[in-house]
């Protein structure tokens, strides 16, 4: 039985407190700032109106960035902390820290991307940024959760925020459809996940993952536990977009506002993988034979279906949706390996994937004009002539997603496939390599459109300073992590070492 | 067979039959009313499990508040039948789509459940018996042991509130969205 929060525990949940406080502050600021509608009533023209909205959006995005920055700073004291807070409800360790850094970096880039997008769409920025911060809070709770209740509440906070964000552009039919699809299927999958979790609780008598590992250690194979594992895998499979639970992804990715699509494909996916690792490596190391087999099948099917389906897409957001499904398949290899090396490869890959995916979406946001959505492949025809910089950035992101050597994507894949081979899953790695080869077709097709097609039918990219920062940062990360990956590798290995060790050690006792 | 066992089977049967009838109804109002019956049976099961507080909550919150909300929504949307004239001939559960996909999934789940529950291996974990049922024990675990999750839940509810405002409001630029 957890002992609840002691006064000293508040120190350890400081980052969560900071981001919650910041989100509330943002809501208050949203109310206090002069409302654009008041200006309209005062008789300001349409230009004055949009100018007001623009200024308002900028102020609120600066506040959001400040909150994220403060949260990052508040993470600093916990670089080498390993404690279980509140009697084993959340863990503050390197593993959680690594993921929190990924979430906050992705959130910051998303906010930078959103400023211009919100101006064009005329959507209200206050609630938007509040929901982005709350989604981040949910992810942070998920990454730290070592108790089923904590993990579930974090997951729910993140998911509800994303349901609303996906439908944030209300005049757009596609956005509405995305929100409804995501909400209905998300609620259904959460029910399945919860059913599995309740079976786990029923069999062990505890919701704490580490206590559960002790309870299950050395027990004979219980069919009810196998059922629980299957249900939990199905529930998490939905969240990470693994085939056959991927049906929602293309529609939601296409319909949701582009920055949200980016954040959804990076943050939500990383958080779900954190949850997956926590549940299976910390809580169920005793049944590893069962879930490894499940994830092995899931990994193969996911990469193959994702890549093959991406081949025929003409909408760039849809194509990236299928490609993100395929990437989930690659990352699952690390779970199958289940070794510290596999886990560190997953962490590395998720971070690298965050940067290249966010970068690619930033270029798509650039193409968004008042009258053009800019996510069709033909919009990119002849982009290299119109904006060589954007085209070059997109080229690098595509090559990195495909896994071509000088970029970070190659290092990530190299490490993942290496971990799979290390753990004895050679043919799984072979399938992964074959899939990477297939994926090159559709990544390179974008490049062909940008560089080899001459007719310029798409829109002029709308460049803005924040978007420039996003593209610059993601581009730098994609190249630097590809050329000099050592720092990241060391950080990831140190983080991976803190996970599962406790669980396996207990299980072996 | 003790009276308790008999009651268990009665409540369980009512819950299962009512739940099945919920999805077999054409009229949403009937579905809602049957769902209330199912919740009532569930609350009876909770009483048998010596959890009177949860049983009462089940009635007050689910059968009371939430079902009233359901009824309101159904009546507001003015959707007495989910069918449009042409497909009234075939019952919704007997159409090819639900039969193939849903039927197969449901059958798979039933087989899995039966297999898992009959192929019994080992005893379940130990549960703190009796103590869970008292309001004091629930309050203690909610506000002390799991206070962190309780606080995060408050953020979750705030998110839902903001979401309702966002989805129902007009845009800041004044145009109806």
Describe what you observe in this structure:
The complex is a heterodimer of chains A (509) and B (177). Helix content of chain A is 76%, strand content 1%. Chain A has 22 helices and two strands. Chain A has helices spanning 9-12, 14-32, 36-41, 46-75, 94-121, 125-144, 148-166, 173-204, 209-216, 223-240, 248-255, 258-283, 288-310, 316-337, 340-366, 383-386, 388-402, 408-422, 426-451, 465-483, 486-497, 501-508, and strands at 83-85, 90-92. In chain A, strands 1-2 form a two-stranded antiparallel ribbon. In chain A, helix 5 (94-121) packs antiparallel against helix 6 (125-144), helix 5 (94-121) packs antiparallel against helix 12 (258-283) and helix 12 packs antiparallel against helix 15. Chain B is mainly alpha-helical and 177 residues long. Chain B has three domains: 1-80, Four Helix Bundle (Hemerythrin (Met), subunit A), CATH 1.20.120; 94-122; 132-177. At the A-B interface, helix 2, helix 3, helix 4, helix 6 and helix 7 of A face helix 4, helix 5 and helix 6 of B.
Distance between the termini of chain B: 63 Å
**Stretches of chain B where pLDDT falls below 50 for ≥5 residues?**
172-177
Q: In DSSP terms, counting alpha (H) and pi (I) runs of 4 or more, how many helices of chain A?
A: 22
Structural class assignment of chain A: mainly alpha
Task: Find the CATH superfamily of the largest domain in chain B.
Answer: NADH-ubiquinone/plastoquinone oxidoreductase chain 6, subunit NuoJ
Percent strand of chain A equals under 5%
The low-pLDDT segments of chain A are 38-44
What radius of gyration of chain A results from the CA coordinates?
22 Å
By secondary-structure content and strand pairing, the structural class of chain B works out as mainly alpha
Specify the overall morphology of chain B. Answer: globular
Q: Which fold name is given in CATH as the topology of the largest domain in chain B?
A: Four Helix Bundle (Hemerythrin (Met), subunit A)
Q: Strand content of the residues of chain B, in percent?
A: under 5%
Strand arrangement, largest sheet of chain A? Answer: 1-2
Q: Please state the average pLDDT score of chain A.
A: 86
The number of distinct β-strands of chain A equals 2
The biggest beta sheet of chain B is recorded as:
none
Distance separating the two termini of chain A: 21 Å
- Write the element-wise H/E pattern of chain B from the N-terminal end onward: HHHHHH
Q: Quote the average pLDDT of chain B.
A: 78
Largest interface between protein chains, with number of residues from each side: A-B, 62 and 40 residues
Which assembly state applies to the chains in this document? heterodimer
């Amino acid at each position: 039985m957890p002992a609840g929060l002691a006064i000293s525990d508040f120190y350890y949940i400081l980052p969560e407190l900071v981001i919650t406080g910041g989100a509330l502050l943002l809501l208050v600021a949203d109310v206090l700032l002069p409302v654009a509608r008041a200006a309209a009533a005062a008789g300001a023209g349409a230009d004055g109106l949009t100018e007001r909205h623009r200024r308002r959006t900028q102020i609120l995005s600066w506040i959001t960035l400040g909150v994220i920055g403060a949260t990052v700073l508040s993470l600093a004291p916990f670089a080498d902390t390993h404690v279980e807070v509140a009697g084993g409800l959340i863990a503050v360790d390197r593993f959680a820290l690594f993921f929190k850094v990924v979430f906050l970096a992705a959130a910051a880039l998303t906010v930078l991307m959103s400023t211009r997008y919100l101006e064009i769409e005329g959507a209200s920025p206050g609630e938007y940024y509040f929901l982005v911060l709350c989604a981040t809070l949910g992810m942070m709770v998920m990454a730290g959760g070592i108790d089923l209740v904590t993990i579930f509440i974090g997951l729910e906070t993140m998911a509800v925020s994303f349901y609303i964000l996906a439908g944030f552009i209300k005049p757009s039919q596609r956005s509405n459809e995305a929100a409804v699809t995501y909400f209905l299927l998300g609620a259904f999958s959460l029910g399945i996940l919860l059913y599995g979790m309740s079976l786990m609780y029923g069999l062990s008598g505890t919701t704490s993952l580490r206590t559960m590992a002790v309870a299950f250690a050395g027990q004979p194979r219980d069919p009810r536990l196998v059922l629980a594992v299957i249900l939990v895998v199905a529930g998490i499979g939905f969240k990470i977009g693994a085939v056959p639970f991927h049906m929602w992804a293309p529609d939601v990715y296409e319909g949701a506002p582009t920055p949200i699509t980016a954040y959804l494909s990076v943050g939500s996916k990383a958080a779900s993988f954190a949850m997956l690792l926590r549940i299976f490596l910390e809580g169920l190391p005793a049944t590893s034979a069962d879930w490894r087999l499940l994830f092995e099948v899931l990994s193969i099917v996911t990469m193959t279906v994702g890549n093959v389906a991406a081949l025929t897409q003409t909408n760039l957001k849809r194509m990236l949706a299928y490609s993100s499904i395929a990437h989930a398949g690659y990352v699952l290899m690390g779970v199958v390996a289940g070794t510290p090396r596999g886990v560190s490869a997953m962490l590395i890959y998720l971070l690298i994937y965050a940067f290249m995916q966010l970068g690619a979406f930033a270029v798509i946001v650039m193409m968004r004009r008042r009258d053009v959505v800019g996510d069709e492949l033909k919009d990119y025809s002849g982009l290299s002539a119109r904006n060589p910089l954007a085209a070059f950035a997109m080229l690098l992101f595509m090559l990195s997603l495909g896994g071509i050597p000088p970029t970070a994507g190659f290092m990530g894949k190299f490490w993942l496939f290496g971990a799979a081979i290390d753990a004895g899953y050679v043919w799984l790695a072979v399938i992964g390599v074959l899939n990477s080869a297939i994926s090159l077709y559709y990544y390179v097709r974008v490049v062909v459109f940008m560089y080899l097609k001459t007719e310029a039918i798409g829109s002029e990219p709308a460049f803005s300073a924040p978007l420039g920062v996003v593209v610059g940062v993601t581009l730098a990360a994609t190249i630097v992590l590809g050329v000099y990956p050592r720092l990241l590798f060391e950080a990831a290995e140190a983080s991976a070492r803190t996970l599962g060790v406790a669980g396996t050690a207990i299980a072996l006792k | 067979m003790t009276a308790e066992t008999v009651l268990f089977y009665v409540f369980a049967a009512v819950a299962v039959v009512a739940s099945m009838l919920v999805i077999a109804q054409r009229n949403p109002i009937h579905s809602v009313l049957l769902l209330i019956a199912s919740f009532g049976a569930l609350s009876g099961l909770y009483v048998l499990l010596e959890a009177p507080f949860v049983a009462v909550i089940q009635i007050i919150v689910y059968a009371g508040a939430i079902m009233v909300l359901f009824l309101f929504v159904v009546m507001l949307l003015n959707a007495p039948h989910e069918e449009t004239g042409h497909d009234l001939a075939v019952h919704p559960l007997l159409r090819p789509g639900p039969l193939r996909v849903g039927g197969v999934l449901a059958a798979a789940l039933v087989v899995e459940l039966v297999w898992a529950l009959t192929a019994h291996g080992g005893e379940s974990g130990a549960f703190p018996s009796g103590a869970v049922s008292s309001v004091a024990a629930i309050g203690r675990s909610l506000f002390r042991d799991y206070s962190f999750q309780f606080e995060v839940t408050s953020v979750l509810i705030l998110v839902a509130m903001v979401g309702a405002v966002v989805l129902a409001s007009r845009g800041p630029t004044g145009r109806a969205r």
